[in-house]
Amino acid sequence: MNEASPSTALPDGLRVFGAAQRYVQGAGALDAAGGLVSGLGTTAVALLDAGIAALVGHRLTTSLRAAGVEIQCLEVDLEVTHENIARTVARIEAPRGRETVLLGVGGGKAIDLARAVAWTRGDAFVTVPTVASNDSPAAMAVAVYDDQHRMVEVIQTGRNPELVLVDTALIGGAPARFLSAGIGDAVAKKFEARSCRAAGGTNQHGTLSLQVAGAIADCCYEALRASAPAALAAVRRREVDQALEDTVEATILMSGLAFENGGLSIAHSLVRGLQSVRGAKEAMHGEHVAYGLLVQLAVEDASDAELLDLRGFLHSVDLPTSLAELGLPDATADELDTITQRCLGSPHRDKTPATVDHAGIRAAIARVEALGTR
User: Fold this and answer.
1) Contact of 133 with 289, CB cutoff 8 Å
2) Cα(196)–Cα(263) distance, rounded to whole angstroms?
3) pLDDT in tens, 363-373
4) Are 252 and 24 in contact (CB under 8 A)?
5) Contacts of 10 (CB under 8 A, 6+ apart)
6) Backbone dihedral angles phi then psi of residue 351, each to the nearest 5 degrees
7) Residue 47 is inside which H or E element, if any?
8) How many angstroms separate the CA atoms of 249 and 251, rounded?
9) How far is CA 174 from CA 137, 178, 218, 326, in A?
10) What is the value of pTM for the model shown?
11) For 3-16, how does the pLDDT look when each residue is reduced to its tens digit (9 = 90+)?
């Protein structure tokens, strides 16, 4: 796996904080798309997740055309591979360049595909997430896979979106599991940013972090602990309340700012292994990260009390805390070795002050699994 460097190299000693130019959130935000996008260009291309095109396509088109923005809508249901990026670029009729706005509308795949296409063409870029399952809507990176959904590259485009438009009524109408996954992805950022900074590790810009990144990561964690269980209850009631607004802000905006500017560590490294083994590979990214966070804290020799406290919170928001809950009961020695070796191959594995080796990862997994039997 190759993790590309940011597109613009910087002299040693500089530190970078990056963010989307504008973030807009609230119930009904989709209907404001026209006025917001019209300031970026007069032509738009929307890549719409095929699963939600019927739900949002007409509203989006109506809003943009009312604001004088011509729009081409393309439904997509593709793995983010280099081949599919090229095929999608070839389908677009609009001229390349900043007069065209590329919108990614839907879940993570549609947004990442749109990000890659916008980066390839040089277009302005807008994300319109319809689920809050991870923090990719506000990010600059594109995870590229092969046809078997094995990660082959992470492209750091060096560009965050010009606009992130989050309609919480759409988020609240999605299955609750998506929001749970987003909580799992976001809750790790406090601990990963803390570990990365303590180890002198670099962030997604390839520089050391500024203090503000850690402050945002801490705020993200506090918001989730205060609001996430109530937010899931609101989703099940099909209501948008303050707990849901706060949780969506944490899972999309704060989490994205924290990881890009604060850095990642073992929790995300373990995802590489969990994606590769029986059963667990079917779990969502945030479910992998939640389990990976427990392993990270075990690697870093956290107390049983801290692990059990986190475990209780993860259960309260329907996140897995054991390999069996991830879909991997009775893991074999070979499967555990696969998880461990792929974790050790991650570029984030050393972004912790703890010693990270095969024996340590295996021991941390064993400790997390043992906590589940207590």
Assistant:
1) no
2) 6
3) 999 999 999 76
4) no
5) 16, 205, 206, 207
6) -90, 60
7) strand 43-49
8) 6
9) 16, 7, 27, 21
10) 0.94
11) 544 545 678 889 99
